[in-house]
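Database export, one record per block. Field names are fixed; values are copied verbatim from the stored entry.
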Amino acid sequence: MNILASRFQNIHEDKKNGVTYTPVELAEFVAKKAISYLDSSDFSNKKIRVLDPSIGDGILISELLRNLEVSKFSEVEIVGVDLDDSHFEEIKTSIQNEYPNVKLILLKNDFLDFYDSNKENYFDIIIANPPYIRTQIIGSEKSQKISKEFDLKGKTDIYYAFMMVIAKLLSHNGVSATITSNRFLSIKSGKVLRDFLLDTLDIQSIYDLGDTKVFTSAAVLPALVFSKKKNKESGGNPEFTTIYEVKKSKQDHKWVGSIFSELEGSSKYIKVGKVNFEIVKGVLNLSKSRNNVWAVGTEINDTWLSKVAENTWKTFKDVGPIRVGVKSTADKVFIRDDWDKFELKPELLRYLLTSDCAQQFKAVAPKKPKEIIYPHTSNEKGKKQAIDLNDYPFTKKYLEEYKEKLSSREYLMKAGRNWYELWVPQDPSLWCKPKIVFPDISEKPKFWMDLDENIVNGECYWITPNNTEDNELLWLCLAVANSKFIEMFYDYKFNNKLYSGKRRFMKQYVEEFPIPDPSLDNSKELIELSKNIYQETNLEKEQNLKDKLDQLVFKAFQLN
């Protein structure tokens, strides 16, 4: 009996130092898939070297050995690296009892430090579930070192560096299998990793496991990447499979015990427990992947997107910049819903649009509307600056009660800012312009027009037109953004979903939303419809207008 498999059968994961232990059924799938890509003829009766750079409880190595047919090789050498050695003795006992001829080397070390002294030490199989830790929280010195060495910028994760090193340590005919977060597939900061992998590896297959909750207590949506070392004969588009929960479905879903029993099967719709899932199989189109996110491509998807591209006039980024809302880094001080209890209310209160206001076309009034102290203004040159606190005695009195707390925002003070400022105030002169506002996270698109000069909170984005004459164009954008068409466009092009079908309406995605030619009669009608929906108060009439709008948006892109 496999001791490790038994020991951890019911312990799916335990987060520690960014490490999430691998569930057994996932480990088994990854191990078998990795072995399937290994050309055993290259290693028959030869030594084979295996690396797990974050070995944890050893389950990945355990499953690999169980399926590898160890006797085919003259020698099997396993190298396991981990900062936490608490499972090393269990791993040794298990492997030595079951595989006495396997050479096992366990090293308590940081994998990236291990790489520094083993850059020419290549491995034939690398199987890994790297830690998920933002580089920003591992300490400035180490973060800077990693960022510099691997050319990482922005909000990246340490698993980026792990995956790059894995690629570098792979032997000529070697195979890598990595369990990682699916974030790198679609976020802007992941481009450097995506490009590196395309340059270095011959990617065989990608599995986006989406919101399957494989890691039940971890807030990570996993992806599996299987690769071989790039060579002259490399070519072809990698297989790409996604699986996500389907909330409402008219399809018949096949009952299965596990998602892993069907990832390689023919079923498109499955049910695990009470949850419905849709499996989509296609490819990663390498000809389109350099400047785009990595999303599953099918013939239907590609044909549909090509039709949209043919009928796209411009995109949202051409209308105006998409900005994130204000960020205070001290919300409990600046933002409240109980200002009325103050006898002397601060003078600088402004109504704050938050995700609680999110609704299509026009904002909804939350039960507890929030207001923000906004201590910024525009100077004579039109640039933002902090107000003179002495000009606003009630605001000054209130903020000075929290001066110690606000002054402790080291990053703000080091930037030469005043202690009472917001961290990200945005340009105050822009708030008075018409703007489209939308939340970062939402199941359905919820874009609304703000004509009341309100402030937008940091959990939302907003768009203002480059020119005042583009205000009409803003209404056309609003129509497209709130349509059923945009849901299809998002899923076909980006497919970045969180749990429960929630989408990420991030700047990098919304910038690419298409706009039909505004001079066409169809577009002019959409503009008027958008305005009418904004003004309509009767829910039934509003829905009828939305239904008509949906039809017209599809028609605008010749998709009828």
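Remark 1: Residues 539-556 form the longest helix (18 residues).
Remark 2: The first strand starts at residue 47 and ends at 52.
End of record.
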